[in-house]
Amino acid sequence: MSLRRILQAVGITAAAFVATAAAVIPASTATAAPARSAAVSSPSASFVVSEDQFNQIFPGRNSFYTYGGLTAALDAYPGFANTGSDTVKKQEAAAFLANVSHETGGLVYIVEQNTSNYPHYCDTTQSYGCPAGTAAYYGRGPIQLSWNFNYKAAGDALGIDLLNNPYLVEQDAAVSWKTGLWYWNTQTGPGTMTPHDAMVNQRGFGETIRSINGSIECNGGNPAQVQSRIDAYTKITGILGVDPGANLSC
Fold first, then answer.
1. Catalytic residue numbers, as ranges
2. CATH class of domain segment(s) 3-113+172-240
3. Is residue 48 packed enough to be buried (19+ CB in 10 Å), middle (13-18) or exposed (0-12)?
4. pLDDT for 228-244, tens place per residue?
5. Rg of the chain, C-alpha, whole Å
């Protein structure tokens, strides 16, 4: 079950977690910031996951989620899977893809499936309102971006007008991947650090779970969901030929 569905069951939206971070971190500061103590390779370096490996990881993926779209999105956050040793780079790529796989059913879902929720994601108290329409800010992309304020924050950080055109997240594969990388590299969610920093600083895969859905799944909240994420991670690290490291659970 995805983060969004779990939270809906308890009357909370996944975007509420992102909203907290968006409210605390101004969009103008939401830029990629790799750990200072780690070396960052050239942004032009090849992605540590090959296209063949990507296809092996996601054999039943929706054709929208292209490998080319993902690699095209990497320039937005050059430190992602490109910081530290080759082992750390592969571990971060595996951690991101494992969480994305869990959230989207193996890269199957592009948009939120429950259309009855669509009108709920417009916060009219924001000064900029919902220019694309009150039902336009539903969950989209690999980490299911939702709410008008999150589209604005992500769009401002990426230099893309997602507030006025949120549909780009379901129409342009690179934009869709960029919104997932925006969360991964800049948002702490219910955790204490971004997932990127968790992997670069070798805090372990479990810390990325905490940053994405820790208040629901971690500390015994939903061990089955945590194990599902861990299983995806260990499978992907196996495909990439890298040790998964320690601290896999939260």
1. 103
2. mainly alpha
3. buried
4. 999 999 999 999 999 99
5. 17
